[in-house]
Amino acid sequence: MSEIVGKFEKKKLGKIFLTAPGPTTKQMFSQLLRARRDPSGFLVEMRKKYGNVVQFPLPILPVYLVTHPDDVDRVMRVNAKNYGKRTIQYENLALVTGDGLLAADTQSWKRQRKLIQPAFHHEAIMRVGPDTVLVTERMLKNWQKLPNNSVIDIDDDMMHAALEIVGRSLFGTDLAGDVEKTAQATLDALDIIVARARTPITFPKWIPTPNNRKLAKALKQLDGAVQRILDERKKITAIAGVDRDVDMLDLLLAAHDDEGGLNSKELRDQIVTFIVAGHETVASSLTWTWWLLGSHQDVQTKLQKEVDEVLQGRNPEVEDVANLPYTRAVVDEALRIFPPGWVVSRRSLGEDVLGGHEIPEKSVIIISPWATHRHPEAWNKAESFDPTRFMPDAPTPQKGTYLPFGIGPRMCIGKDFALLESVLMIARIAQEWNLTPAGSEPIPRALVMVRPAGGLPMFINRRN
Ligand code: HEM
Fold first, then answer.
1. pTM as predicted
2. Please, what sign has the CA dihedral across residues 43, 45, 49, 52?
3. What are the residues whose beta carbons fall under 8 Å from the beta carbon of 250, sequence distance 6 or more?
4. Atom of ligand 1 nearest to the CA of 113
5. Separation CA 171–CA 205 (nearest Å)
6. Where along the chain do its domains lie?
7. What is the assigned CATH class of domain 2-462?
8. Interhelix angle for 415-432 vs 128-144, to 10°?
């Protein structure tokens, strides 16, 4: 059945009008395995096959993949008020993070963002400098015990380091003793989210399926970590009062507006959100940066040269980051090729038009930084690793072309924190070590974040 409405020819599938090209139900079924095995690659292929706006053949809900930078910019920034976060992706995430900043829908988000933004102001995130160096030193001490040309799993090391840094910098807590358990709990919880998103039938949380039991255990673990963070803070405040550096947790505890401050449930949700959002994202970005550096030795040598010249053998500090433009460009380019958050989603609140296609209200919009970063209209030779794209003298990327941290009002609140941490850690390691790949080319596994399937073995060698 089809009818012409305005300039759009609409076909019907179940209750849904099809307003953009895309696979038929039969084609979609034949692609399901592929889509599960390599979802980020699948989205790129869909764009190549059907164009900038692709509609998936779901009979109950209009679902669109939007990849062109202009359309991405419209959804996330220009017309952001027309798009909320009531999607399966964020509803599942909320099982772990509650109504924290990342998963919150518009109304609740607005209040939270105003309350929380000051906690990410310049001075508050400066703590990340010394904390990053301290945690990196601790990791390098273990490397130093190994003979040259040993193989380490860089993915594993980056995961542990990133969690410790979030704990220390944001909450003044040494999560080191707890790292194993908290890291595993975070990963378990995120794994279940992915499993739920991939299964057509999901059981309510209270039915004790194996996955729900695993989720309950992981949540207990995470809640335990949050409680320890808060208990420790009480202890520190009792001993030192206010006579100490104010950190993000103090700012969260002090935040208030006309409606008051954050209650204990809201505090728990924000802390879990920061652990979830600030851990695996940064770790994934660092892991891929090392893989790219290892497989492009010329780039690694150039980065080492910059680091040596600027630091002259001393530890890096936050103030050095401005003088390490090549190191920063390497991180930026790694985030382009391997954006950890490879997919985000929105729900349209009213009608819109994207790429010439009518988008009805209540549509799900899938945006994939992974696919847009590979769009030929966004980037020249998109597949090649070229940090010079991000050097200060390179042209500023066009709007909607570069989205590792999202864009518009829902952009990542931890962007500056993550970039400082990444540049400092890469610089500190590069001062002493040279890394090269120890296995075959890693296969990116796109779950909540894009991580290398089965870890990432690399040879480590002292530079002198
Ligand atoms: C390389 C590291 C990181 C990457 C790639 C990343 C990526 C992203 C992306 C793509 C979004 C937007 C999601 C959307 O539009 O639906 C986002 C939002 C967010 N991120 Fe990050 N992130 C990183 C690090 C961090 C860190 C370190 C923190 C906290 C300490 C953090 C906390 C958040 C929060 C709270 C939001 C929600 C912001 C809002 O909606 O107001 N992220 N992040």
1. 0.93
2. positive
3. 233
4. 41
5. 29
6. 2-462
7. mainly alpha
8. 30
